[in-house]
Amino acid sequence: MAQKRGFLNHIRPRGVSEKAMSFGYTFCLGGVSFLAFVVLGFTGILLMFHYLPGEKSGYASVTTLASVIPFGGLIRDLHFWAGQVMVISVSLHMVRVVKTKSYRPPKEWNWLVGMSLLVLTLVLDFTGYLLRGSQESGAAAAVAVHILTLLPGIGRPLAQMFLGGASAANSSTLMVYVWHCVALPFLALWLQMFHFWKIRKDGGVRPL
Ligand code: HEM
């Protein structure tokens, strides 16, 4: 019971500092980032009902989805634009954190969690672009594999693990699909929950 009350107090605390509520301090950029993530989750699930991963089927299913399926184009556009909004809002949120010097102790660990979230956001945006299956996204995948293999030692295994390497286009689109639709979103969701919990643990949003 005490545990349940603790959890409820955590999601709806009794007091929030006035500064945390002031728009001019946070510009609500963390909140906007989370909202974009939620929209991405909903629209992403709807897109998964029609998307078929594969070298040729990826492009064909995206085209069918946008032109034949009712509201398919709208859902695809919403997913795309929410992704771009998230990249911009997460980057601006980081600038705000630098401006208010909120990376200093005791918030230094949450700064590192935030950095991981920024990397995850960019990787999610990039892997989404690869799933289009267009010629441009094929070229982008080839460049990514090439850049990764330039890393000494770990480059090749990383390229194999994330993008399936340079060959076997079908299995690599399946791999990118699983990263983009399952593994990375779950990791990002978990990290965001941890990020929010850590804000409270560090004393809430307030000038240091
Ligand atoms: C998915 C991405 C992210 C989400 C959803 C998110 C969400 C939030 C939210 C809702 C807050 C509360 C205050 C506010 O809105 O500004 C916050 C605070 C914070 N965030 Fe993020 N954030 C993300 C990424 C980042 C990044 C990239 C960094 C830095 C590298 C970062 C570092 C911090 C820090 C240090 C705080 C505490 C700020 C303070 O106490 O003034 N976050 N975040």
UniProtKB/TrEMBL annotation:
Q: Which GO terms describe its biological process?
A: respiratory electron transport chain
Keywords recorded for this protein, A-Z? Membrane, Oxidoreductase, Transmembrane, Transmembrane helix
Gene3D superfamilies per the record? Cytochrome Bc1 Complex, Chain C
User: What Enzyme Commission number(s) does the record list for this chain?
Assistant: 1.-.-.-
What Pfam family is a match, any one?
Cytochrome_B
User: Example GO molecular function term?
Assistant: oxidoreductase activity
PROSITE patterns xref list: CYTB_NTER
Q: Where does the Cytochrome b/b6 N-terminal region profile domain lie?
A: 1-208
Query: Would you tell me the Gene Ontology cellular component terms?
Result: membrane
> Where does the chain cross the membrane?
21-52, 58-75, 80-97, 109-131, 138-154, 174-191
Q: Which residues form a coiled coil?
A: none
List the protein's name: Cytochrome b6
- Species name: Acididesulfobacillus acetoxydans
Classification from the root reads:
Bacteria, Bacillati, Bacillota, Clostridia, Eubacteriales
